[in-house]
Task: inverse folding
């Protein structure tokens, strides 16, 4: 039986839950293998051959080869594991995050220093409360009338 996932309606967001964890298990294990210098060297010497040693989907392998971290996340990758790819490439987490947002490293840094991204466009589709039956809509009291 599928679990109810009220968080599925957050635009542009992939939540790393148990389902995503299962989907990305081998992708994330590949990433963790890059913690060992010998494996990083083997990967950099022939990326495709190294990836072919892992029972990942072809789409996951293509996402890694393209260094498309957003694609990797949609395919079950966890950003904390995917950071190992960036480190192998000599990139900082800030550089990686910038690439995921379409910004340069400097633009991303400046945005974060100035308080982060605007919440506009990043709300749940049912932000008014209609898709969140477990929450009271904003501005309404939790008390019953006349209490």
Result:
């Amino acid at each position: 039986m599928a679990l109810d996932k009220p968080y599925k309606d957050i635009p542009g967001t992939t939540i790393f839950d148990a389902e995503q964890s299962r989907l990305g298990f081998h992708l994330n294990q590949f990433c963790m293998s890059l913690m060992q210098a010998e494996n990083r060297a083997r990967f950099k010497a022939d990326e495709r051959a190294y990836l072919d040693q892992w029972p990942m989907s072809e789409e996951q392998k293509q996402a890694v080869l393209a260094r498309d971290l957003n694609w990797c996340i949609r395919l079950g990758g966890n950003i904390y594991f995917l950071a190992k790819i960036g480190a192998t490439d000599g990139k900082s987490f800030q550089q990686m995050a910038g690439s995921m947002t379409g910004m340069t490293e400097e633009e991303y840094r400046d945005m974060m220093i100035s308080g982060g991204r605007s919440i506009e466009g990043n709300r749940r589709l049912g932000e008014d409360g209609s898709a969140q039956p477990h929450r009271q809509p904003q501005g309404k009291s939790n008390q019953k009338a006349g209490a």
